Amino acid sequence: MSQAGRDPGLTGRQPGAVHGALSVLEEVARVGPGVTAQQISAALGLPRATTYRLLNLLVQDEYLVRLPDLAGFALGRKVALLAGLAVQATPEGVHDILLEVRRRVRGGVHLASYREGVLELVDVDPDFPLSDERRLLSDLTSSALGRLLLAERRGAPVPYVAVPNGPMPGHGCFAAAIRDPHGALVAGLALALPTQRLGDPEALLELTAADRPRLATALC
């Protein structure tokens, strides 16, 4: 190809960088959440400086997320988008169950999946839209759904998380764990409610007790 016909935005080094980035993503997917830069460098035979540079770029572009306390890395929301998780149709039966919950709760009811250790929204309540979906997906500390997943990653699973003060004044969020028959966390059921209704999270857990096993069956 002549110099005039060459794409000025593509250099000889870039294909190697792309391959390196894909290799890093594959290694994080293989090992799972919490893999460290040192482990990735050793497994791929990459110099540490190169590994850190690739990790920082992938985190910046949301293909990876850095776990709290710099405890390692996990796949980010864009990987799930590429895999088609975000555009899947709601599994049969799930939406009907959520309609029942919404009639009973009288508040926002959202469902998120934790497939492959990544938070992805499955069904968002159209009557109670999320205030900041991008932040919810990229910053797991910002929501009850995200904190539920973080607790699981840290090896300290919890049945629910309540966040009484959300981005909307006077409102917060409660998220209950949905587990498969083997106890693995597969999804989270979130209730967006006025702060005063979050004062008794055990009652909210009981309110959704019959729905969560049904959702687990429909999702699995």
Entry keywords:
alpha+beta; 220 residues; five-stranded antiparallel β-sheet; Beta-Lactamase; 41% helix; disordered N terminus; 2 domains; two-stranded antiparallel sheet; Arc Repressor Mutant, subunit A
Question: Would you give an account of this structure?
Answer:
- It comes from Gryllotalpicola koreensis.
- The protein has 220 residues and is an alpha+beta fold.
- It has 2 domains: 14-75, Winged helix-like DNA-binding domain superfamily/Winged helix DNA-binding domain (Arc Repressor Mutant, subunit A, Orthogonal Bundle); 85-219, GAF domain (Beta-Lactamase, 2-Layer Sandwich), CATH 3.30.450.
- Helices cover 41% and strands 18% of the residues.
- It contains 9 helices and 7 strands.
- It has helices spanning 14-31, 37-44, 48-60, 77-83, 94-105, 133-138, 144-153, 201-207, 211-219; strands at 64-66, 73-75, 108-113, 120-123, 160-163, 171-179, 185-194.
- Strands 4-3-7-6-5 form a 5-stranded antiparallel sheet, with helices on both faces. Strands 1-2 form a two-stranded antiparallel ribbon.
- It is elongated and about 55 Å long.
- The termini are far apart.
- Residues 1-12 have low confidence and may be disordered.
